[in-house]
Amino acid sequence: MTGTRGSGRAAVHWLTAQAVLFGIMAALLGIVANAMFLDAYGIAWLPVTYIFIGVAGIVVSGAIARTAQTFDLLGIALAVLTTAAVAIGAAWLVAVGGDGAWVSAPLLVLFPILIQLGFVFIGGQAGRILDIAGIKASFPRIMTGFPVGAVIGGLLGAQLVAWLGRTEDLLLATAIAQAGFAGLVWATAHRYPAELGSDKRGQGSDVQGRPDDEGRSSPSVWRLLRSRFVVLVIAYQVLSALGSQLADFLVFDRATAQYPDRADLARFLGGYTAVMNAVSIAFLFIVAGPLLRRFGLRLGVASNPIVLTVFAVGMGVVLAVSGATSLALLATVSAARIADIVLTDGTTRTSINAIYQVIPDRARLSVQTAVEGVGVPVAIGISGVLIIVLNALPFTLAATIGVTVIVCGVWTWVSRVLYRAYGPALGHALRRRPLLVPTARLDATPEDESVARRLLSSRDPRATRLGVDLLTAMSTPALAAEFAALTDDPRADVRISALAGLAASGDGHARRRLAGEVRTSVASTDPAIRLRAAQALEALDSVDRAAAGALLEDDDVAVRCAALESVQAGDLFALGPAIAGLEDVRVLGAAAGAVDRLGDAVVPLMAELLDTAASPAPSLVVRLVRAVTTGTPGRDEVLRRHVGHRDRDLGLVVMERLVAPEPAADATATALDDVLLDDVRHAARMLAAMAAMAAIGDDLREADRPVRRALGEEFDLIRSRVMAGRLARHGSERLGPAMVELRAGASSDALAMEALGVQLSRAESNRVLPLLQPDVPIEQRQGLLAAWASDAPTDLAGWLRDLVEDADDRWRSNWLRACAIHAANARGVLDEMDVRAARALGDPIIDEALGRRASRIDDEVGHRRR
Is-contact 32 171, C-beta < 8 A? Predict the structure, then answer.
């Protein structure tokens, strides 16, 4: 099932355990660092630490981003986490050994950097083990571990202080928790060596110097950082961190003003933290995953900035109405910060980790570290500067709230721009490198020309003809001279080839002589001469080609193919032979090419055949529509009228021919949308029938298997129709890469589904995605589309009757009907069904199935007589 690579459920457990220990470490470090710093230096120096955090974050995260270009995720994570554990342990030794309050300052600077890097490491592992659907479904649950760990850490911290009597001793517990986090990262990497790079053999594109999955060198990290999409991600993260930091400062500022007594302040902060963690845990565990699965990143990237903007505006209103010291303002800023924390953990962090999946694996960790490890500390540093400047103003609180409103407003706008850029970025991530098509002509070397001349002078006519063909393909100044010498050759096929080469170069006299040679050669008894004449038709004008039109109906297949390949636009004389050629598999390819080149000349006949085609449509109609690949307004108008053709296979071919790089015109788009609705209804009934057959369990009989296979084939047809219809509706430039991946059944299926979910409207994706998503159980698909088949039968007998009688003309498949007749006959329920409509079709397979039923009745009558 889409969503995980490997054992997804076990991976979620491992990553959740990491998040729990990470939360414990963060809570303990936050308690001890803030307590020691505020006790030693006071709140006035707190904004200064924000500036140092920005500088340190740039240095540390920049170094890690550069290192990530050489080393794998496991090595970097273990090095950083272990070094941090050792540093915290050393700080404990300094703090308990004497006057070590100064260590609180570097610890307070280290605290947010470790928080960001911890999220990077957990998110990086999730991105390697889970695919994009798994991240959206499971990452909120993984992140539940962080607030759970924070609650545990808070309770543990208070208890340890009570037992040990000193706040500084919490540093030892913090170092142990950090070491445990590092140990779990190591264990997870050895549980998933191929995904996380601890096994170089499974690392694939992540090995230094090797190409990525598409055979291309991975793009430079710094080039990716300068790309518009990554710049938008950076801007989003910086604004997110800046808005969060301002909201956090406002909570501490208003709480300090409201509760000047330290004990009262501690009680408020304890209750505030408890409420924040409880709401965060509930949201992450219950709401976030289903919310993101239903609404996707459209909601995920926009919810946090929009909600915080609303709260920021509310702060200004409450300030104006109730005053700066009111409990209402404290409640508003506290609620804003709680909402920000909940949405950051539940939607923003998950959405950004999903967005990182469009970045090549080799560069992903470097980009993620640079964006979060540098961008967030920079935002914290900016917030420190802003707060210092705002504190110098006489209206500090109002100015701070005003700046918060502006920051959140810009953040909301960036979220919209980022989401609009996300769809094209997904398409770019899925797009394959185009194949290189060699040119038809060769740049000849002197050695090549020498070989061609030796062949021309050979007495073997086959060698001479090969020499002419080689010389024709060469860009050589000697072309005219060499061919001129052969125009009087006694061998007709050599003369024709030489004259054709000269005529192609623009020689009018040679073209006139060639026309005469071709007319004469039409009556030749030598197929080789007629073949040369047919190949030379391309060098003549339409009138001269018409004079040799008999070659289009030559008895020799090779001659007919060559003549059809020479047909050009405007050759109306070739219309009949080209159409006839579509019914001869020996010349089908050449005839299809001729039909396509004839263009609009074929359209009236195509319209007539489509108008009269029944179901199943004759093979000629299907081949004709398939042959007309070049789009024209006339062709597209005829095809538009038949996208909903009664024969669904023919309708599929029609939709495939309407696919173009750009979206369809309005009239065609409307017709395609109507067809999609019909296909969804048909698929819903089909899934209900398949589920009914799957539900019979041990009662499944051998006679039921053909109808089950036929239903599966019909469902595959509907999936193909939906793909073709959406490609024609929205254009191959927009949806092509995702559809290619889905058709190929590639490992990036989840990324392709995400691309479709982003690029289609919500209503459209609700209809399309349940059909296109690979490897989904029948019951789950049926549940997603149940509303479209509310009037469906409920048991197997009812479905067999529905398939056999097809009273509402919904199934329209003779093969499916024949298989249902076979199953109903074997189960002894066919006698209860009306088979008159089936018999009236005159289909030999249906008649054979009904004949077996008549034979069974005769056998029963004879047995009773005996």
Answer: yes
Residue 433 pLDDT grade (very low, low, confident, very high; cuts 50, 70, 90): very low
Nearest to 443 by CA among 419, 485, 476: 476
| Cβ pair 707, 830 in contact under 8 A | no
**74: its two tokens:** 């496991």
pLDDT of 780-833, one tens digit each? Answer: 888 888 788 777 787 888 999 999 998 888 898 899 999 999 888 888 888 889
- CA pair distance 666, 683, nearest whole angstrom: 25
The pair of structure tokens assigned to 544 is 């001269």
Closest listed residue to residue 297, CA positions, set 245, 364, 356: 356
- Interval 711-726: pLDDT, tens: 999 999 999 999 999 9
| Nearest partner of 269 among 280, 279, 254, judged by Cα | 254
Q: Whole-angstrom distance between the N-terminal and C-terminal Cα of the chain?
A: 57
> Residue written as tokens 């038949």?
642
- Alpha-carbon gap, residue 288 to 278, rounded angstroms: 14
806, 819 in Cβ contact below 8 A? no
Question: Helix 396-430 to helix 732-744 angle, to the nearest 10 degrees?
Answer: 60
735-772 burial by CB neighbour count: b if 16+ within 10 A, else e?
bbbbbbbbeeeeebbbbbbbbbbbbbeeebbebbbbbb
The whole-number pLDDT of residue 98 equals 65
Residues 6+ apart with CB under 8 A from 206: 72, 197, 361, 362
Cα–Cα distance measured from residue 40 to residue 55, given in angstroms and rounded to the nearest whole number: 23
Q: Are 18 and 181 in contact (CB under 8 A)?
A: yes
Q: Which residue has the tokens 């260590």?
A: 103
Between the ranges 471-480, 566-575, 849-858, where is the mean pLDDT highest? 566-575
Average per-residue pLDDT for the chain:
80
Q: How many Å apart are CA 568 and CA 566, to the nearest integer?
A: 6
Cβ neighbours, 10 Å, residue 586: 12
**How many Cβ atoms from other residues are within 10 Å of residue 207's Cβ?**
14
- Specify whether the CB–CB gap between 409 and 396 falls below 8 A: no
When pLDDT is cut at 50, 70 and 90, the band that residue 730 belongs to is very high
DSSP letters spanning 206-226: GSTT---TTSSPPPPHHHHHH
pLDDT on residue 169: 80
Q: How many Å apart are CA 271 and CA 334, to the nearest integer?
A: 11
